[in-house]
Design goal:
heterodimer, A: alpha/beta, four-stranded parallel β-sheet, four-stranded mixed β-sheet, about 10% strand, B: alpha+beta, Glutaredoxin, 4 strands
Chain lengths: ~425, ~170
C-alpha cells in the first residue's frame, strides 16, 4: 500500500493489490495457501505453539492472545465433536472500517487463515459471520468458498490430508451486539443475540454446546504469514512490544482519511500526520479516539504514544480496532459523546439493567446538555452512570465500552460541558 | 394478499411451492429448526419486502417453530421489518465519523426532499428512510446505503440526483 511495501513486510494486505480480489489461481500463483501447506506438514500442536510464540493478539478490539484462546479448546479423540470455528466479520464499531477492506479484497486469505486455525484446534465446521450491510464482501467470499470446494481446499481430505473443513457464510440481520462472541453464537443459533453468562466459555461449550473459537477477521488474516515465515519473523514486524502489523485507519477532518497496514507500535502522530496527511486547513486537532467508538478520548499530548496494546492502555484508553476518529476544534465534543452514547443505548440488547436503563438515561442527559437544557447536577449524574455500567455489572462489554468515550469526554472536555450548561446553548452552533 | 386475509390477523398466509422448497432447503442446514429462524425471516422479507403477521404464522405452522420464538427474533434484529417498507430503503449512516463529516446536513436534505421522517415511507411507496449506525466506510464519510449500493462522500446538493437515479432504476420492475 506504500512505496516501500514488500511481500513479507505487509502480510495483511499483500494480496489487496487490485479493486477485485484475486481468483484462487492468482492467489496461489502469488504464494497463497502456502501457509496452509506449511501447517499441514506440522502437527496441530506445533501450529498452536507457533501461533503462541508469535504473540499474535486478537484484532477485534480486546487484544486477547490468540494462541492462548485456542489452547482452551479440549483436545484429543474423546472430546466433543464437531468443533466450530467462526470468523467474526460483524464489523459495526463506530469509526471502524478495516474488516470490510480485507473481506472485499482478499477473501482467500481469510479462508486460508480459517483453515490454519481450524487445523490447530481440530474444527471441522466453520462459519463466516458477516453483517447484512456487507453484501459486496458476502458475494466475494461466497465465490472464494466455491472455488475452494472445487479445488480440494474445503470439504473432506483437504489437499489430500486427513483434514475435513466445511465453511459457509451467515449474514446477520443487524445489531451491534452480534459482534460480542457469545451473542454472535446465539445469533448463529437463530436466537436473539443476547450475550451468554460465562463460564462456560465458548472454547468449551459454544455453538450448539460444542467447543467453539470466534476470531476476528483481521486476526485470521495474520495466520498465513505466521505459518509461512515463522513466529520470530512476525514478532520482528512490530516496532515496539507487540508483534506483527495492523490495519490502522483515520477518519474525520484530516487531509487523507484512509487505512494503512503499518507495524504494531507505530506512533499515533505518524499515523495522523504522515499517513492521514494531518489536519485539513482551518481545523485543529482537539482530541481523538484511538480505536473505534468504545475507546476513551485522548488529547494531542498523547500523540507520541505507540499503537501498542499496553502503551495505549497506559494512557487510559485502548487500542480497540486501531481505527482513529479525529475530533477537530470546530466540532462540539458534547455532540460527539452524545452520538456515541446514543449509539450504544440503541444497540443495547436489553439483557442487563445497567446497560438497558443506564445508557438511555446518559444519552438523554447528553442531549439535554447539548441543546442547552442541562443542569449542573447532570454532570454528577453522568459520572454516577459511568460507574453504574462499570465492568462486572453487565454480562458483556457493551456498556463499559459506552462508558469509555463518555468518562473521558467528561474529564478532558469538562469546560465544554460546563459552558453548555451555563450559557444555555451549544457554543459550537452559532 | 386478498382482503379476506388482511381482515383476519390470525389467519396464516399461503406459502407458495417455491417458498416451501426454499424453507426446506434452509432447514436442511441446521441441526434444529429454530436455528434457521433468522434465515427464514430474511427469505420471507426478500420475497415480500417485510414480514407480516400472516407470514409469521405461516412460517410457524410450516416449520413448527413456536410463533412467539419467531416474533422474538423478528423484533430483535433491526433489519427485519415487521411493517411494510417502500420499494427503496434509504440508510444514511449516522455513525460518529459520518456525524463529524456532515451527516446532519445530508439527513436534513433527505427528509426535506422526501417529505418524511425516520421510519416513514413516501406516499408513492417509493422510499423508506431508516438511518443506520456505522456502515464501515468512515474514510468516505458521509455515506448513504441504498439497495446494497453505498454512496460515498455524499454532499447535500447531490441528494436530488441520487434519489432520481434510484427511482428511475427501480421503475422498470
Amino acid at each position: 500500500m506504500t512505496a516501500e511495501a514488500t511481500s513479507t513486510g505487509y502480510p495483511l494486505t499483500q494480496y489487496c493489490t487490485t479493486d477485485q480480489p484475486l481468483s484462487l489461481l492468482e492467489y496461489q500463483q502469488q504464494g497463497g495457501y502456502q501457509g496452509l501447506m506449511e501447517a499441514l506438514e506440522q502437527s496441530p500442536d506445533q501450529v498452536l505453539e507457533t501461533v503462541k510464540r508469535s504473540r499474535l493478539r486478537g484484532r477485534g478490539g480486546a487484544g486477547f492472545p490468540t494462541g492462548l484462546k485456542w489452547s482452551f479448546v479440549p483436545r484429543g479423540e474423546d472430546t466433543p465433536k464437531p468443533k466450530y470455528l467462526i470468523a467474526n466479520g460483524d464489523e459495526m464499531e463506530p469509526g471502524a472500517f478495516k474488516d470490510r477492506y480485507l473481506l472485499e479484497h482478499a477473501p482467500h486469505q481469510l479462508i486460508e487463515g480459517m483453515l490454519i486455525a481450524a487445523y490447530a484446534i481440530g474444527a471441522s465446521v466453520g462459519y463466516i459471520f458477516l453483517r447484512h450491510e456487507y453484501s459486496v464482501a458476502a458475494q466475494r467470499v461466497n465465490k472464494a468458498i466455491q472455488q475452494c470446494y472445487q479445488n480440494n481446499l474445503l470439504g473432506s481430505r483437504i489437499l489430500d490430508s486427513d483434514m475435513t473443513f466445511d465453511l459457509s457464510i451467515h449474514t446477520s440481520a443487524g445489531r451491534y451486539i452480534c459482534g460480542e462472541e457469545t451473542a454472535l453464537i446465539n445469533a448463529l443459533e437463530g436466537k436473539r443475540a443476547t450475550p451468554r453468562a460465562k463460564p462456560p466459555y465458548p472454547q468449551v461449550a459454544g455453538l450448539w454446546g460444542k467447543p467453539t473459537i470466534v476470531n476476528n477477521v483481521e486476526t485470521l488474516f495474520c495466520l498465513p504469514g505466521i505459518l509461512c515465515h515463522g513466529a520470530d519473523w512476525f514478532q520482528q514486524l512490530g516496532r515496539h512490544q507487540d508483534s506483527g502489523t495492523k490495519l490502522f485507519g483515520v477518519s474525520g477532518r484530516v487531509n487523507n482519511p484512509g487505512l494503512w497496514e503499518l507495524p504494531m507500535g507505530t506512533p499515533i502522530r505518524e499515523i495522523i500526520e504522515q499517513h492521514a496527511g494531518g489536519m485539513r486547513d482551518g481545523y485543529q486537532l482537539r482530541g481523538f479516539i484511538p480505536g473505534g467508538g468504545s475507546t476513551d478520548f485522548l488529547l494531542p499530548e498523547h500523540l507520541d504514544t505507540p499503537m501498542d496494546y499496553d502503551e495505549i492502555g497506559k494512557t487510559g484508553s485502548r487500542m480497540g480496532t486501531g481505527t482513529i476518529i479525529i475530533l477537530d476544534d470546530r466540532f462540539c465534543p458534547v455532540d460527539m459523546a452524545h452520538n456515541l452514547v446514543a449509539f450504544f443505548a440503541q444497540e443495547s440488547c436489553g439483557w442487563c439493567t445497567p446497560c438497558r436503563d443506564g445508557l438511555p438515561s446518559a444519552s438523554y442527559l447528553l442531549e439535554q446538555i447539548e441543546k442547552g437544557h442541562g443542569k449542573a447536577e447532570d454532570l454528577d449524574y453522568l459520572e454516577e452512570l459511568v460507574s453504574f455500567v462499570a465492568p462486572g455489572n453487565t454480562f458483556c462489554a457493551l456498556a463499559p465500552g459506552a462508558a469509555e468515550p463518555l468518562q473521558s469526554a467528561l474529564r478532558y472536555f469538562r469546560k465544554d460541558f460546563e459552558q453548555h450548561i451555563s450559557d444555555g446553548c451549544c457554543p459550537y452552533q452559532s | 394478499m386478498g382482503n379476506s386475509m388482511s381482515d383476519n390477523r390470525e389467519q396464516a398466509a399461503r406459502l407458495t411451492a417455491q417458498e416451501c422448497s426454499g424453507i426446506d432447503q434452509i432447514l436442511s442446514h441446521y441441526p434444529v429448526a429454530s436455528g434457521a429462524a433468522i434465515d427464514l425471516l430474511k427469505m420471507i422479507q426478500h420475497e415480500h419486502g417485510w414480514v407480516s403477521d400472516q407470514h409469521l404464522r405461516a412460517l410457524a405452522e410450516y416449520t413448527h417453530i413456536p410463533i412467539a420464538e419467531l416474533e422474538s427474533v423478528a423484533t430483535f434484529y433491526n433489519l427485519i421489518f415487521r411493517k411494510p417498507v417502500g420499494n427503496n430503503v434509504l440508510h444514511p449512516c449516522n455513525g460518529v465519523s459520518c456525524l463529524l463529516m456532515g451527516y446532519r446536513q445530508v439527513h436534513q436534505t433527505l427528509t426535506q426532499t422526501l417529505g418524511i421522517v425516520d421510519g416513514e415511507t413516501t406516499q408513492d411507496n417509493a422510499f423508506t428512510l431508516i438511518p443506520l449506525p456505522c456502515l464501515g466506510a468512515c474514510d468516505k464519510a458521509p455515506v448513504v446505503l441504498i439497495n446494497d449500493q453505498l454512496h460515498e462522500k455524499v454532499r447535500p446538493d447531490q441528494i436530488d440526483t441520487i434519489i432520481h437515479a434510484v427511482s428511475r432504476k427501480a421503475q422498470p420492475q
